[in-house]
Amino acid sequence: MSTVMIDLALLPETSETMRAFVDNGNVPGAILAWRQGNGPIHYDACGSLGFGRTQAVNERSIFRIFSQTKPITGIAAMMLVEAGVIALDQPLQEILPDFADMQVVDGDQVSRTRPAARPITIRHLLTHTAGFGMAGMTLGALYAENGITPGSPGASQGHAPTTLADMGKRLATLPLAADPGTRFDYSVALDVLGLVIQVASGMLFEVFLKTRIFDPLGMVDTGFAITVEQVERFTDLPEEIDGAWALADDPADSRYSRPLYPAGGGGLVSTAHDYARFAAMLLGEGAFDGVRLLKPETVRLARSNLLPPEVTHCDLPIGQTLSGVGHGAGMSVSLQAGTRTGGMFDWPGDVPAGVFGWPGAAGTACWMDPERRFFLVFLTQYWPSWLNGEMRPDIVAAAYRDLQRGV
Question: CA-CA distance, 282 to 285, in Å (whole number)?
Fold first, then answer.
């Protein structure tokens, strides 16, 4: 594909694809944000903030981005790596001593354990190779028993951790699913990384993100909590139950108005306006709109394959494989032209090599293409996460057809 830069003011097939999902009632509303080269950021929105609501979606509408939080946490960690405060291969126990002498499940019973073969490192946290699990994945039942269920709207919060430190202390008492550095297990590793950032920087994790990333980039509506003033712009989270729509999270009484702790793996809310500025900074190799957050070489490292040498592929414990994909700082990177498999975790699907980013459980996504200097943010809301499996891959495919026509 040619890399000639033009101002892509329209992505007609991509917009049409998005609108079809709204018109067919798959989602109440959605928005695209994109940019190529140094051109302006463009937006295209349709539908409303919720089924039965009249407010139209726009670039300032607020969405739960769930795991799309992970690249932000990963980049925050890379800022500390660049500053020499932490190192990629530094043992976690040097920062969080509770994680020394970790045990690993030995066989099929979580009650049988053995000592871990090696310490957990920062690299392991960034790439989901620390041996942790999460609700719905590896060790999910054990985590639920201990109240560690971030990112689950319907989960009971009665015995959940209320601080990052509490979460870390609980997690450190539980066994790992595998020796660190030997297997990709989608996990709460980025939540632990938030605690690392907090301890290593001497600043509350949420304050670090606001001070070092959100404020400099003008990400005015991105954070872990919804304010009273933001509620009218906050989208519904519609949940499909027995073929009918209910609310998994009601903006008027949202769990985001009283978050338990700042979950770096999936706790943020954001807008198309805000996340587009974050994406533009990454494609600008650390700089956007006159503000530099990182050196170019740090961004290139963050979006490279950081998996330990022993980990050659990203299998998920529910029978899904991310094809041709490595992992960087809290986000995937396509190591070869992607192959669409039709799976629930089919990410990034049909894209060229070098594309990086990560989606969120409620339908959101952002993918960034350094060669074409192009990014596309897609925000919508639905629950549970396995609904609308064709939506994001269809939009990805349409965007690249639009790119092909436009250059």
Answer: 5
